[in-house]
């Protein structure tokens, strides 16, 4: 690939959005957002909560909404002005692909280039222009589109069409990418590859992303912060890990319940095949070399990594347990004990200022005499890296 080593784009954009979107059904979305958007912002919430309406307001598809929108101090929409979508430097991927069915995949991609020829000139792709887009050859390679280029868009599967739609978005010059569930129709392997690629693009080229998703693993993989859309209101969540603890009902599946710990990378113990991570006081051990390319000399210490600890894989003991194979036993304090199901309870644990969840039976809670404020030990069976091991590099 070509090496695009820098950009003149400022890091992030200042977005001020206020007002209200009202539907004939009676639904109302109240907006009062004043944020500097940097990195990847996950936009999450129940179906029908207003996530897509929020994205449409920013991208220009709600011209009749009573809103005031300013981006970097420039008015995009108010009672005097309403920039149409084509005049807003926003590139959007919707839940539906919206391809031209009669055109081939390649012609669908070239359609975007013909609309913005100046941005795709060789001298413009060094980021000297105001808005950013990727070159065609890189997008084709990164999203594995080579075998699809000659196919008519109407013959594509849902997942293939979504990859082409994402490619078109990356070819459009923009200051902001809005991705509305862009990987929803893809299989798990494709998600694991493409999600971190989006994150890499965002960080490398300083292009902020608003990323609508229901998938917790995608959020943990790539998001720097989150917007929670709930009952017509938007709440800013600065720590992504809080989503699994404060808002478990919005997550995609019950399996997503758990805690996220931010750790420092310490070392890889080659003899045992273990990677050591550290909280402020305690260590966590993960099987294997993480990241896979790590050497003692090449991976910097004090590098932050997030790990996901499923609630189902956390047990509680009143004292450290000896003579067992569990390596990860962390001192914690019980913050709260909440009803989960008729048989189980959800225990929120403070772990050196961060939070874990444990799902245990009511019987165990009563037998151990657990109470809030009590110091106990979290016995952790499974710890998984919440960020991808694969790192994308330009060659």
Summarize the structure.
The protein is of the alpha+beta class and 395 residues long.
What's the arrangement of secondary structure elements?
Layout: E1 13-22, E2 28-37, E3 40-44, H1 51-59, E4 66-71, E5 74-77, E6 90-93, H2 105-115, H3 136-142, H4 158-171, E7 176-180, H5 188-205, E8 209-212, H6 216-222, E9 225-230, E10 233-237, H7 243-246, E11 258-269, E12 274-278, E13 283-287, E14 304-310, E15 314-317, E16 328-339, E17 344-351, E18 354-361, H8 362-368, E19 375-380, E20 384-385
Parallel strand pairs: 3-8, 3-9, 6-7, 7-8
Antiparallel strand pairs: 1-2, 1-4, 4-5, 9-10, 11-12, 11-14, 12-13, 14-20, 15-19, 16-17, 16-19, 17-18
Helix pairs in contact: 2-4
CATH class of the largest domain: Alpha Beta
Strand order of the largest sheet: 6-7-8-3-9-10
* Average of per-residue pLDDT values: 82
The tally of beta strands, per DSSP, is 20
Instruction: Write down the overall geometry.
Output: globular
- Radius of gyration, whole Å: 23 Å
Unreliable stretches (pLDDT < 50, length at least 5) are: 1-10, 124-129, 387-395
Number of helices: 8
- In total, the number of domains comes to 2
Order of helices and strands: EEEHEEEHHHEHEHEEHEEEEEEEEHEE
Largest sheet: 6 strands, mixed
Annotated CATH architecture of the largest domain: 3-Layer(aba) Sandwich
Strand content: 25-35%
CATH-assigned fold name of the largest domain:
Rossmann fold
By CATH, the superfamily of the largest domain comes out as P-loop containing nucleotide triphosphate hydrolases
Distance between the termini: 5 Å
Alpha-beta classification: alpha+beta
């Amino acid at each position: 690939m070509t090496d695009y080593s820098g950009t003149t784009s400022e890091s992030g954009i200042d977005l001020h959005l206020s007002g209200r979107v009202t539907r004939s059904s009676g639904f109302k979305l109240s907006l009062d957002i004043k944020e500097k958007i940097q990195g990847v912002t996950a936009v999450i919430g129940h179906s029908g909560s207003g996530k897509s309406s929020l994205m449409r307001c920013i991208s220009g598809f709600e011209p009749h909404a009573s809103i005031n929108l300013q981006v970097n101090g420039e008015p995009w929409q108010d009672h005097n002005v309403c920039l149409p979508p084509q005049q807003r430097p926003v590139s959007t991927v919707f839940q539906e692909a919206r391809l031209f069915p009669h055109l081939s995949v390649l012609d669908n991609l070239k359609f975007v280039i013909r609309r913005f020829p100046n941005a795709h000139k060789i001298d413009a792709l060094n980021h000297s222009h105001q808005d950013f887009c990727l070159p065609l050859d890189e997008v084709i390679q990164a999203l594995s589109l080579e075998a699809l280029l000659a196919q008519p868009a109407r013959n594509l599967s849902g997942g293939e069409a979504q990859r082409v739609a994402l490619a078109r978005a990356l070819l459009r010059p923009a200051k902001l990418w809005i991705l509305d569930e862009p990987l929803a129709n893809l299989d798990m392997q494709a998600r694991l590859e493409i999600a971190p690629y989006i994150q890499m693009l965002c960080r490398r080229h300083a292009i902020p992303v608003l990323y609508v998703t229901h998938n917790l693993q995608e959020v943990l993989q790539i998001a720097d912060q989150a917007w929670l859309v709930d009952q017509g209101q938007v709440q800013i969540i600065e720590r992504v890990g809080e989503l699994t603890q404060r808002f478990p009902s919005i997550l995609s599946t019950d399996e997503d319940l758990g805690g996220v710990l931010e750790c420092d990378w310490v070392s890889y113990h080659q003899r045992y095949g273990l990677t050591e991570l550290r909280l402020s006081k305690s260590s966590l051990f993960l099987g294997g070399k993480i990241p896979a390319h790590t050497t003692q000399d090449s991976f910097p210490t004090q590098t932050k990594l997030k790990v996901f600890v499923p609630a189902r894989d956390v047990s509680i003991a009143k004292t450290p347990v000896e003579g067992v194979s569990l390596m990860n036993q962390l001192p914690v304090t019980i913050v709260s004990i909440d009803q989960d199901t008729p048989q189980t309870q959800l225990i929120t644990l403070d772990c050196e200022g961060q939070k874990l969840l444990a799902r245990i039976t009511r019987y165990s809670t009563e037998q151990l005499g657990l109470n809030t404020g009590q110091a106990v030990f979290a016995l952790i069976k499974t710890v998984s890296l919440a960020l991808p091991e694969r790192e994308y590099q330009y060659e």
